[in-house]
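Continuing the batch. This is chain 6 of the set; chains 1 through 5 are on the previous pages. Same settings as before, nothing changed between runs. Recording input and output for traceability.
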Amino acid sequence: MVDLGERSLGMVETRGLVAAVEAADAMLKASEVRLLSTERTEAALITIHVVGEVAAVRAAVDAGRAAAERVGEVLSAHVIPRPGDELGVLIDRPAREPTVTYALPDIEVLTVRELRNLAREIPGLPIQGREIARARKEELIEILRDRLGE
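Output for chain 6:
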C-alpha cells in the first residue's frame, strides 16, 4: 500500500469549460498542488482533481471555487484530507499530462440548447459558431454521435 501521509485530494466540479479552466488556473496558482486530472462527464460538467498537502489542497479548492463562481457555475467542491491507503493508486499514479475523460450522456433527451452548449465545448466539429446556433436537434445529435463515436 502507498503511504499517503499528509497527502490530500481536492476536487472542483463546474459546468462549462471556461469555469473549469479558471478554477484550475486559480488552484495551481493558490498553493503548491499538482494537477492530477480533469474529467468531463455529462453535458459540459468538468471536474478538476488536484493533490498535495492537506492545507495546500484546501486553499487551492477554495481559490478554485471562488474563481469559477466569478465566470460560471460551480456544482461541487470537496477536499478529502488524508484519504485511505486504497486511494493511493488513484492519487499517486504516474501522470505526466492530465487525463481527460469523455462520457457522452444520452443525447436524445437533451434539449436543443443543451446540445448546442455541448457542441460548443467539443473541439473539431464540422460546424462552428452560428452554424451551431442554427442547427436543428437531429442535426446536432448526428454530428455529436459522429464526432464522439456513439
